[in-house]
Structure formats: C-alpha cells, structure tokens
Design goal:
By secondary structure, this protein is an alpha/beta fold. Helix content is about 40%, strand content about 30%. The strands form five sheets. The protein has a six-stranded mixed β-sheet with strand order 11-6-1-2-3-19, sandwiched between helices. Strands 14-13-12-17-18 form a five-stranded mixed β-sheet, sandwiched between helices. The longest helix has 27 residues. About 5% of the residues have low confidence.
C-alpha cells in the first residue's frame, strides 16, 4: 500500500512517499523538497507558485521511489486553524450495553460546537469518555451505564485557505485524499512509543508559524498556532545587520546559535550587505540577535498552554521540538532552560527505508501525514464495505435500500 504525505509550508514543500510492509512497518521509499515562495504564514497567497513548488517536490519524490502518485494526504497549517475541546452526551437505554452507535451519537453532539461560518471542521478527536460519572475511560463499548459523556478535541480551518490549498494541490495533478492539521501530523511523526503514555508538548517551528500540540497518552488534547517562526528570526538578522533576507537566511543556517557561548568567539563572519559591500560580524553577536526571538516563541507557546490547560510544568512531562526552526543550534537547550523540563529534538520515529533522508525535525510533519494516511481505508476497502452493507441489509429494508441506491446514482 503506497501513501504520500504533502507538507506545504511557508519556506518549503516536502513530499514523502511511504509503503506499509506486510509486517506493518512504514517504509519510506521517496522524498522530495522544493523551496516554497507562494505561502505566507502557512497560507497560500500565490496559487501558481505554490502549485509549481508542489509539482517539483512531487516529481523529486516520485523519481526516488520509482512510483507514480495520484493521491496525497495534505497538511494544513496557518493561524486560521482553531482548536477547541467540546463536550458530548448520549443517554443509554436501561438494560442495554453501550454500543458503537451510542459513542457516535455522543461524538456527533460534541461536533455541534458553534464555529464561525467561515470555518470548516477538519478533525473530531475523542480524548476520554465518562460513564455514569466514572472518568478516564478510553473505550466504553460494551460497558453498562445510562449516561455516556465524551470530551472531543475539534480542529477547524478557514474555508478560504482550505479552498486555495486544494486548488494548488489539484493544479499539480493530484487528488486530495485527506486534509490533516499540521499540529496533529507533527506529533504523529515525532512521538516515540514511550511518549504515547506521557503528556508531551510538541512545538513545530516552521518558517512562518509555530504549531503547538499537547498530546496526552498519544491523543491530541490541545492545539494552537502562533504567527511566528524561523522566518522572523531571519528578518531580525536582516534588519539589524542590514543585509538581504537571502543572505540572512544563509548566515542563520550556517552559523546561527541560540547562545553566544555556543558560537566560536574567534570566528568573524563575512556577510554580503545591501549594495554589494562586505561586512564583518562576530559569531557571538549573531547569537545575541537570534536568541530574543526564540525566547519569544517559547514564551508565547507556554502562555497558550498555561491559559488553556493550566501550568505547563504541571501538565507536561516532556517537550519535543520539530520543524526546520528546531535545527538552530542550542534551541533545545534554550527550551530546557526556559521550561525546566526534558526537551529533545523530534525526528520521525518507527520508520525504515530512507531513514537517513527523513531523520530530521524538518520531516516530522510529512512523515506524520503518511502515518495518518496509513489509517485511512483505501478505495477498495470503502467499496467492499459499501457492498457488505448492501448485502447485509434486512429484507424489510431491501426496497428502500434499492430506492436510495437509484437516487444516489441519479444525483
């Protein structure tokens, strides 16, 4: 089974192609990355450039994998994403056990959250169930009770940004198999098996935004998006050193650090200033420019968690940093200092194949999209299930089932 994940970001577009082996292991068989110039803060602002970047990334991945991709699981980013936790309730008839239909009713009620009209629901992720007041239940099916409650984390996205993203993907000749919020995908790609039993904060620091995701025992419990990312660090460097953005990005990637102490005190950087002249900057001075913005990203992320679920140091056991911005030298040390918690860089977990290519925080989201896609029913399975339902229909419903099938074919 071939699955493709498409991570459309502010600074780059990455396609990862995976294959589920017979033993259930995810093999990465293709990867392609192209510069992205058509997005701003995770949102498409130039359709043609975004489509071209998707096409380039896809073709690179297809050449490596030796397969043709027609459908992709697409990551959705940007500060138009909105995550809320909603509560659902379903009454159970006395003498009856809780069935899957009862669970579905409770979740459907939770999905009735009054989002603004311009938002479209992407995910309804159950957190935990409560049966007759008993908390902490993960799967209530088969249990006895008269009152079923559920907390569901809902993620919605702006209809306009979603429509433009779909157009860009379809313009590259692809079909959108699923749209997945990037905070969810980054966690699916970066969390280790051990962390699936913990409370983990995942910060995906991209070019234009930082995705915040709090996972409790492997389930997404809180998500948010900050309109700050690695490009803002680059802009600070460009502004303070009076150099072009492209030169600032080059200097940041090659010499950037979160602490002046991590920079070589003897190293003096030669930089290309605006107008073509050369300038010199001590490496520790570059770190002094970078650190304030990184501290701001960490502070605002903590503030978002504190306000939503309570003090971070109490609610969280570990912090995982992903995204291209996490590659700045010493960023994990700065986060550990600022949060007082264990921090690690989040590389894709539990995959084989091209592990040397995707074993970076910058690939966590794309790998997470492939992993999400592996849980979706394939087209053949969907057709098989529909056929089984028709064959299993009670005799009394046969005529009505035929009528509905005819109407579906007509419309």
């Amino acid at each position: 089974m071939i699955i493709a994940g498409l991570d459309v970001g502010t600074s780059k577009v990455t396609t990862v192609i995976g294959e589920i082996s017979p033993d259930g292991v995810l093999d990465i068989i293709g990867e392609g990355t192209a510069p992205s110039q058509g997005l701003k803060r995770g949102v498409v602002v130039n359709l043609e450039r975004t489509t071209e970047a998707i096409r380039q990334s896809l073709h690179q991945a297809e050449r490596v994998a030796g397969v043709r991709v027609e459908r992709v699981v697409v990551g959705v980013g940007g500060n138009h994403l909105k995550g809320v936790t909603s509560h659902g309730l379903a009454a159970i008839r006395r003498g009856h056990s809780i069935a899957q239909a009862d669970v579905d009713r409770a979740i459907e009620q939770a999905k009735a959250y009054p989002f603004d009209a311009e938002l479209e629901l992407l995910h309804a992720l159950p957190l935990e169930f409560k049966v007759d007041g008993q908390e902490g239940i993960r799967d209530p099916v088969g249990m006895a009770g008269v009152r079923l409650e559920v907390d569901v984390h809902l993620i919605a996205a702006g209809r306009g940004p979603l429509a433009n993203l779909r157009r860009a993907v379809e313009g590259a000749g692809l079909e959108v198999e699923a749209l997945v919020a990037q905070p969810l995908a980054s966690g699916l790609g970066a969390l280790s098996p051990e962390e699936e039993h913990m409370s983990v904060l995942v910060l995906d620091v991209g070019g234009g935004t930082t995705d915040i995701a709090l996972f409790r025992e492997g389930r997404l419990a809180f998500s948010a998006v900050l309109p700050l990312g690695g490009d803002h660090v680059t802009q600070d460097i460009a502004q303070l050193l009076r150099i072009p953005f492209e030169e600032a990005e080059r200097v940041k990637r090659k010499y950037g650090a979160a602490f002046p102490e991590l920079a070589d005190p003897e190293l003096v950087l030669e930089i290309n200033q605006e107008g073509g002249s050369l300038g010199e900057v001590p490496a520790p001075e570059l770190a002094r420019i970078i650190r304030p913005r990184l501290r701001e990203i960490l502070h605002l992320s903590r503030q978002a968690v504190d306000e939503a679920v309570g003090p971070l140091e109490i609610r969280v056991n570990r912090v995982v940093l992903t995204g291209g911005g996490a590659l700045l030298r010493g960023f994990d040390l700065l986060a550990r200092q600022q949060y007082g918690l264990p921090v690690r860089l989040g590389k894709p977990q539990g995959v084989s194949g091209l592990t040397d290519v995707v074993a970076t925080p910058a690939h966590a989201t794309a790998v997470g999209l492939v992993r999400y896609g592996s849980t979706l029913p394939r087209e053949e399975e969907r057709r098989g299930r529909a056929r089984e339902k028709r064959e299993e229909a009670p005799k009394g419903e046969g005529l009505w089932a035929k009528i509905k099938e005819i109407l579906n074919n007509l419309f």
